[in-house]
Amino acid sequence: MKAAVLQGTKQVEVMDWQNPSPSPDEVIIKVKSCGICGTDQHIYHGHPGSAEVQPPIVLGHELAGEIVEVGAEVSNVQKGDRVSIDPNIYCGTCTYCRSNRAHLCSHLQAIGVTRDGGMGEYCTVPAANCYKIPNQMTYEEAALVEPLGCVLHGFKKIHLSPLSKVLIIGGGFIGQLFLQLVKQQNVHSILVSEPAENKKCLLYNLGADVVIDPMYASKYEADVVIECVGGRKVWNLQ
Fold first, then answer.
1. Residues in the chain, pLDDT under 70
2. 104 in the same domain as 54
3. Of 9, 71, 80, 90, which residue is most buried, by most CB within 10 angstroms?
4. Catalytic residue among 9, 42, 61, 103
5. Residue 61 falls in the annotated catalytic set
6. Residues 99 and 177 in one domain
């Protein structure tokens, strides 16, 4: 099969790659759509991912496709199913997993990070990590299920009221998802801090009341701040 293979820092090559084969509890997905996450960009530039990356490897953890082969022990999905995936594979036995903190798993594996991902024609995925998608959902939409899941997880931790003044730092894709969720809560106001001029029109259309340059963000009051950048400079803002 053809795949975009990370060979090293800032080195990606489209090349012939070995066709995958499933273990008894795995499936083979014919990839129909794969997103490029900020994590993929970090890995490309030589920074850590959610776990240690060992090139050569096929990146891509935001993916969707059709199951074309199933392992002998798989029963929850079948050949022909249209699926999206959860890329994180937890050991289930370490202290963190056993104390409901699987995101800190001592033996974390991740599709497209520690094992080949979706930037190839086919991808091996544990059947337990596959989620069937409705027929009316496109594969492009299904590839966005993973980042939306991250946003929904964070959103559950936020307490909003009709009086809440919300500041969203970062108007990229994650910030745009948060913006749409917050808008549905009928809060007092939504400010988005975003320096890119070409994003402002979209952010207003998605529900922002004010889009501001980050240089002036400190002049605005906010009851709730949602950080969607992940940069060290942003973490240090007061």
1. 232, 234-238
2. yes
3. 90
4. 42
5. no
6. no
Q: Which is catalytic among the residues 39, 61, 114, 124?
A: 39
Residues 14, 97, single domain; the answer is: yes
The amino acid occupying position 179 is L
The long-range contacts involving 103-110, CB below 8 angstroms and separated by at least 24 positions, are: 108/50, 108/51, 109/51, 110/49, 110/50, 110/51, 110/61
Domain housing 202: 158-235
Mark which of 114, 143, 172 sits at the end of a domain.
Answer: 143
Split into its structural domains, the chain has a count of: 2
E-strand ranges in the chain read: 2-8, 11-16, 26-35, 57-58, 62-70, 82-85, 88-89, 109-110, 122-126, 130-132, 165-169, 189-193, 210-212, 224-227
Whether residue 114 lies in the annotated active site? no
**Residue 92 pLDDT:** 93
Query: Pick from 153, 168, 137: which is nearest to 66 by CA?
Result: 137
Do both 106 and 8 map to the same domain? yes
